[in-house]
Every structure is written in structure tokens, then in C-alpha cells.
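[scheduler] slot 2 assigned
[scheduler] job type: sequence-to-structure, two independent chains
[scheduler] chain ordering preserved from manifest
[runner] begin chain α
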Amino acid sequence: MKSTIQVRLSQASDAAQLVAIDNSGVWTPANAPLPLAGKTAAEFAAQNPPGSHLVAVIEEVVCGYVGFRAPTPLPSNAHVAQLDIAVHPDYHRMGIGQALIEAAKTHCAAQGMRKLSLRVMATNPKAIAFYKSCGFIEQGRLIDEFCVDGQYVDDIMMYVML
């Protein structure tokens, strides 16, 4: 039996489960230029107020999230949302990432945004392929932007118009 994925705006009570996703091993040197694990629920909640993420829930378990925020504080950039996304490893290959991206497109368009953007390290080909399957295209590349474990890594900027 296939589990039903529900996507909704984040709530204050989700902070502990969102931190658990970040601490699940989802972030590695291959996909993040710095460790993202180790925050407490209170630290996460202070940096990410309720409603700043869409969360995927299966049987009352928050198993993934997509955050969206303005890439800069400039009013002239307010039509763009920069995304970050994570799905707990126990829930990979269940359509959660796709559901989150589609929900982010719908939510951000309803908020008047015209463009979604994200950044992905070149050492993460699975994520790049996933984003392309969701309609994102490369709009730029910062060459050797990060040095992770002694290796220089490009930072790829991708976008999709809404």
C-alpha cells in the first residue's frame, strides 16, 4: 500500500522533526559546503519561523522539507524565491522531493513570485538530475567556489520560471 504524502506549511511544532532530517546524514561534503547538522530545535526555529518551509508528512511523520526565501533583501528581487530541500534518507524514492518542488511552485506562484532558484554543488549529480526532471535549468556556475575536503567544487545555480 502506497503512503499518502501530505504537504503543508511548517509549524512551530515541526522544528524537532526538521532538525532530525538535517541530522539524519542527508547533508554530506558531496552536497553541502559546510556541515548543517547539529542545530537544536530552538536554533532551527529561531532561524526558520513557522511558514518558512513546506513540509512533507506521511502518517504524522515530517519526512522532508523545502524552504523558500528571498535570495537578497532587495525589493527588486522579491519576485524570486531561493529553495533548499531535504528528504530524510528513510523516505527517498517515494516521490517526496517531487511533491515538495511542485508544492513550492504552486505556493510561490500564489505569493506573486515569478522565479524559483537554487544552488547545487557539482559533486551532487543525482540532485542535478532531479532538479532537471523538475524543470530547472542551469543559469550559471561559480567555478571552484568551494574547497571541500581539499577538492575545489563548482557551485551550480539553477532556476525555473513560474
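[runner] end chain α
[runner] begin chain β
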Amino acid sequence: MDLFSFTECANQTHSLRALFELLVGCATKEGFSEVAYGSLNFVEPLRLAEYPPPTVAVKWPPDWCDRYFKRKYHTIDPVVRRTPMLSRPFLWDQLADHCQLLPDERRVLDEAREAGLKHGMSVPLFGPLGRISVVSFASAFDDADPQHRIGHLNALAWQFHAACGDISRPCDNGCERKVALSPREISCMQWVAEGKSSWEIGKILGISDNTVNFHVKNAMRKLGAASRIQAVVVAVRLNVL
């Protein structure tokens, strides 16, 4: 399922559980069937009742899920601790390379791997008023390659996050907001949605990559987005693309 198909299905979904099941289904097709969504610094108004804060929704092996919550691993989980310091999607296997993990943080990752959460990756999600959430994906397979899937999973995470916000705050979700992008901005963003770089878009449209960056940044500003993928998600939800 591509981003546009996911968006169409998400727009017809009115419950967090159904939306999360949609995300899990899409991630499973990518080889990453273990998924968790958490809110790190504010109380989420919508939450699956069986999971305590900071988790909003989880699909993990039952034994690991039970151990994680009973032992309050979220207080030492390096994904929870490090997400606010990282601006881009990151692989769990590379956390130790970029961060000086403490012994208890390494232990959580090792135990998660033994429980069946292998080769995980997480997507930091930054919202208004300093709000931070995270979507994590992991595979049950030893040969899974999250680096190869990181772009698609990143897009799915942002789309899920936006749709979750719509369900949680239906009166303040900005769906009626009108955004007018120029034809060139739309062209550039359509190719961004296809995963093209500025250099590739420039070659396709016959303009310089600096010009592409100019139009993309203008579109991001109009859409109130902090990243290209977030801009694509917002544009799709507003039917701009």
C-alpha cells in the first residue's frame, strides 16, 4: 500500500484501534510486524486502555509486552530516552554507534531482540507546542533490513500520526485549512512524495536543485511542516497533492 492509498483508508477510519491495525498491516507487508506508538511528553487524549503511558498503542509479542510494562522499561528504554534528541528516523542497531548507551539501556535492547523485536527502527514525530511522539517498527526475522524500508516506514509513521491527531482532536485538526501551492511547488512536492532527491527532481523538471529546494521550502512553510515527508503527509491530507 502506497502513501496515497494509506491516506485514503486512514481518512475513512474513525477509531484509534482500526487506524493502528491499518498501520500494523502495512508495516507487516514491509516485513516489520511489531509496531508501537508512544507519546513522550504530553498526555494523549486518545489511548488504547490496555496500555499505560507513555504508550498509546502496541503490537508486540505478549510476553515482551507484559515484561516491558510490569518492569516499567519505558524509564530506561533508549528509544524513549533518545528520541527527543534525534531529528530523523534511526535504527536500533545503530543507537550504540551514535549514543553512549548505559548498561540498562543496552539490556532493554538485548532483551527486546531476544523477545522477537529484531532490527528495529524508530521515527521521531514532532508536533506543535513541543509535543514529541514516536512510532517504532521491528521485525521478527533475522535477515530484515530496516535501512532498505526506512523511507516508506517513515512516511507511514507520519501519516499515521497525522490521522491519529485528526481522530483525537476532530474540532482542531486543520482539515478545513486552505493551502494554495503554486504549480511549480506542487510539481516538486509530487516528486518528493515519490522519494526523489532535489538533484533528481531538478533533472526531471529541467531546473537547478537550488530552485527545487526553494520551491520545496516554500511549500513546507505554507503547509506548516518541519520536514519534507511531513509536508507530503500534510499536503496529501489537505488534498493539495
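[runner] end chain β
[qc] chain β: The longest strand covers residues 118-126.
[scheduler] slot 2 released
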